[in-house]
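User: As part of a screening pipeline, I want to sanity-check one entry by hand. Below is the sequence and the SMILES for zinc ion. Please return the complex as structure tokens so I can compare it with the automated output.
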Amino acid sequence: MNTFEDHTQDIERLTVTKPYVIGLCIMEQKALFGIVDARGEVLASESVLMEDYPDPTTFAFDVCDKILPMVERCGGMEKIKAMGISACSGNNMNGCIENPANLSWKGKISLAKMFQGCLAIPVSLMNDATAAAMGEMAFGNAHGLQNFVAIIMNMGLGSGIFVNNRIVRGYSGRVGEIGHTTIFPGGRPCGCGNRGCLESYVSRRGIIGNMQDLLRQRPEVATPLRDIPVEELTIEDIVQACEAGDEMALECLRYTGDILGKALVPVANFINPEAFILCGMVGSVCGKYMQKAILEALNNNQFFPMRWQTRVLVSDLKLDEAPLLYASAEAWNTKVNG
Ligand SMILES: [Zn+2]
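Assistant: Here is the complex for your manual check:
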């Protein structure tokens, strides 16, 4: 037996500092990726359009091609600890995206394995809501909280849950699907095939639907939103009207907040969180107009001894950076195996 083995490689491996991680956030329309440091500073980032990638393998190769020069500019791959990927329908337990409802990819896609093959670093993958909770914990308004629920509102509605300072992953890795709770049986159709899901009322599409309903129900009320064809209304139009003090737009977000607040009652009763954090592009911009209605609905309906304990906060991370920070947060927890 050779007692004088060469440990040069081990010594190199164990003495090099790895100050950065790679984040990749896959959203409905685009994927955002970049290099992030431990304080949440984005050193480099880029994006691609999802419509250009009907095939996930080509997507992985192309994104790696774009990531490698970024990595070189930041000091090379030895400076990178790991990669974190967030995507709707991402499963942390197997590193796969599973039957994504809002992407053109079908079936079970082993995306973590593909990137691990290309980049030769540990890669973790999780759903966008769980990633949001990790990101808000690491860099945002949940910093220091041990029990909270991140409510992520975009095209859909999901939640990421921290209990006793640990992320909840669930039995099969599919935790937090609050958006598909039936709140109005027989109500609006949902992308999942059911009717009356929370997501059909509290999401980008849901809020626009609430505004369209209000405009139809109250033809006598004047609002600048009537100048926009009802089918072309956007969240940005509604938020802009709120900022200008338009009573009808404000009522739309109060109504949405009331629905969400009631839906959060069982969540608050079950897990006794210190805070709900509204995040995601839609949650972040609409949140401040929904906060009061959420609190009222929650506390008028919650189990009496637990009332007025849970805060409702809005993410204040930069809108264009938050998805990347969320995706990168889990990467810090991955093990480096040399
Ligand atoms: Zn649904």
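Points to compare against the pipeline: The pocket of zinc ion is lined by residues 180, 190, 192, 194, 197, 199 (CB under 6 Å). The chain is about 35% helix and 20% strand.
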